[in-house]
Amino acid sequence: MTQLPPLVVADKVPVHVAVIMDGNGRWARQRLQPRALGHRAGVRSARKVVRAAHKCGVRYLTLFAFSQENWKRPELEVRLLMKLFISTLTREVDALHRNRVRLRFIGDHREFPSELREQMRRATELTRDNDGLQLQVAVGYGGQWDIVQAAQQVVDAGLPVTVENLEARLDTAGIPVPDLLIRTGGESRISNFLLWQLAYTELYFCDTLWPEFVDEHFAAALAWFADRERRFGRVVDVA
What we know:
- By secondary structure, the chain is an alpha/beta fold.
- It has a single domain (19-141, 178-226), classed as Undecaprenyl pyrophosphate synthetase (3-Layer(aba) Sandwich).
- It is 41% helix and 14% strand.
- A 6-stranded parallel beta sheet has the order 3-4-2-1-5-6, sandwiched between helices.
- Strand 3, helix 4 and strand 4 (134-141) form a beta-alpha-beta unit.
- The mean pLDDT is 93.
């Protein structure tokens, strides 16, 4: 690991950080630009945060890129987002692979264009054995969907519905639950993201719009996390 940025506490870096990347549309609107410009700017911020997470020693990073609810957006915007996903994957995957990043996609992808599904499959296969940052991109994802599909798998297998059996069938199976959730854009909600997995996650909300979120903002979130006393329902003995 390279030298840590100021504010980051080396022995309190979260293992897994999840991010709700909010504010692309508002960022564009403030500049009297189309929303598509905001989404393109958001891709640049995502690239910066991937690098910052690697530099800080975060092992797992999950980015919420496209929710199931986003299908309700105007058809033109959805089409542009699909094209942006394809072009971003095409452009970024080789660099991620060179830096030993393992890429994984979580969510329901059945409605995605076949070209995008194929790009996702190739990127996953190419980076499968990488031992660096584990990067999950949540696309077509919804927390309620994840719980329901896991429960259905348990029922179909004729198994009892237990915490262990459900967790083993969530789309995030094999990934530790997030220690820290960051949401940009000034909203204080989790928007159907990782509902099961966020049970004891520390939630950090900031007003910065996603295209303006840079390394210093990421470091500030990690510093805030380092100050948290995580009890997981237990009582801390202060005697």
